[in-house]
Amino acid sequence: MKHKVLIIDDEEKLRKLLTRIISLEGYKVWDESTLCGGEKILATEDIDVVLCDVKLPDGNGVNFTKDMKHRHPCCEVILLTAYGNIADGVQAIKNGAFDYIVKGDDNDKIIPLVSRAIEKTELQKKVRQLEKQLKARYSFEAITGDSPSLTAAITLARKVAPANTPVLLTGETGTGKEVFAQAIHASSARSSYPFVALNCSALSKDIMESELFGHKAGAFTGAVKDKKGLIEEARGGTLFLDEIGEMPLDLQPKLLRFLENGTYYRVGDATQRTADVRLVAATNRDLQKEIENGEFRSDLYYRIAVFKIQLPSLRERQQDILPLAKFFLQLYSVKTNKQITSLSKEAEMALLNHNWPGNVRELKNVIERATILEDSGQLGINSLPFELQHSGNVAGGIAGNSFHLATVEKLHIQKVLKYTNGNKAEAARLLDIGLATLYRKLDES
């Protein structure tokens, strides 16, 4: 596709000369004698570069540049003037002009200049496209599922996203807390700034403090140079602290101080620093119980839990299991260069009947493994892990020795266990049998 250039100049001879020079290089060129005419072209064509005179019958090119860059940020402007002056040149660059040149100095310079301006335009368009793709990838629309419990969580997250309010995401491991945190960031006014994540369960206290706040050279053995912390890296954006319930107790006051007034100190440094960062935290622990046990500060809890969102387990959103499985199947089929287009009915039943203690993360891993093992165009039950194959047989209804009392009893016990989310004591109570009897019957099966 040809790149597009617009020339705006009231000197017809120069305008026609530039049009001819630029057209001969393979560019598609429009030419206008007024800003009004140029604006009409810009409104209908995706122009890459504008060559514009500074003084025109209906306006000033320097002022036009500022307005045009606001409306067409990827389009570059090269200003032409008969009499160059430093003040205009400086203001033109401030207003976003690519360059400011004197007419007729050297027409041979025009083509290289236009070429460089188009390179910048192409780069800006690629960056914007990548930003759009990134935003789409981490948007709420990218979260698969429409179960009531998930929809309710998304609704809350959408409402809080535009605010700067701290958010606490709670729920079991693998429910997608980081996915929600990224969607909140992508839907906020901070989306053009960094999203920085730290898993609080993965580091010791000293390393975590250095990672979070940074350190000064010589602060400890191995600190050979100054290091920025993640708070500084996230400046203007969002800091996601996963598993915040695992944060060491003596580090919590320092985080609280930062959340209260935006100030912090690098490890080993006496210089107070500031940063504007939004906090999104996540935990699979009951922080209220952690407070009672003296493992988490109540003042920090109330600071991070201003807006709390509980994410449902996969057990609570069973209608989302198959859509998620098909999404992951499509993803890993592409990654493994396979043409697996569907799930067998037996595989679907096995997935639906499984308890999913690892939630969405477990489902994702199961489908990735199964995709690698599957050799046909349909993902079958034999490619699933053994424990899921067993679930599939249970879910498939009464088969084989279907009239044997042991078979019917086994199916009923499995259904009750599924209802209690695997809680054997509760299952035994509902079945009105002893817990020892339940274990014996499970061993027999």
Give a quick account of the main beta sheet: strands, pairing sense, barrel closure. 5 strands, parallel
Can you count the helices? 19
Q: Tell me the CATH superfamily of the largest domain.
A: P-loop containing nucleotide triphosphate hydrolases
Mean pLDDT: 89
Tell me what the CATH architecture of the largest domain is.
3-Layer(aba) Sandwich
- Which outline best applies? elongated
Structural class: alpha/beta
Distance between the termini: 68 Å
Residue share in helix? 40-55%
Number of domains: 4
User: In CATH's first tier, which class of the largest domain applies?
Assistant: Alpha Beta
Strand order, sheet with most strands: 2-1-3-6-7
CATH topology of the largest domain: Rossmann fold
Which stretches are poorly predicted, pLDDT < 50 over at least 5 residues?
392-403
Quick one: how many beta strands? 18
What is the rounded Rg? 31 Å
Strand percentage: 15-25%
Keywords:
elongated, alpha/beta, Rossmann fold, 5-stranded parallel sheet, Helicase, Ruva Protein, domain 3, 15% strand, 445 residues
How would you portray this structure in words?
The protein is α/β, with parallel strands linked by helices and 445 residues long. It has 4 domains: 4-133, 3-Layer(aba) Sandwich (Rossmann fold), CATH 3.40.50.2300; 140-310, Rossmann fold, CATH 3.40.50; 314-396, Orthogonal Bundle (Helicase, Ruva Protein, domain 3); 397-445, Homeodomain-like (Arc Repressor Mutant, subunit A). Helices cover 47% and strands 15% of the residues. It has helices at 12-23, 35-44, 61-71, 86-94, 110-137, 148-160, 177-186, 205-213, 230-233, 252-261, 287-292, 298-304, 321-335, 345-353, 359-373, 386-395, 405-419, 424-431, 435-444; strands spanning 4-8, 28-32, 49-53, 55-56, 59-60, 76-81, 99-102, 167-170, 195-199, 214-215, 227-228, 238-242, 263-265, 272-274, 278-283, 307-310, 342-343, 378-379. The strands form 6 sheets. The protein has a 5-stranded parallel beta sheet with strand order 2-1-3-6-7, with helices on both faces. The protein has a 5-stranded parallel beta sheet with strand order 9-12-15-8-16. Helix 10 (252-261) crosses helix 12 (298-304). The chain is elongated, with a radius of gyration of 31 Å. The chain starts with a strand and ends with a helix.
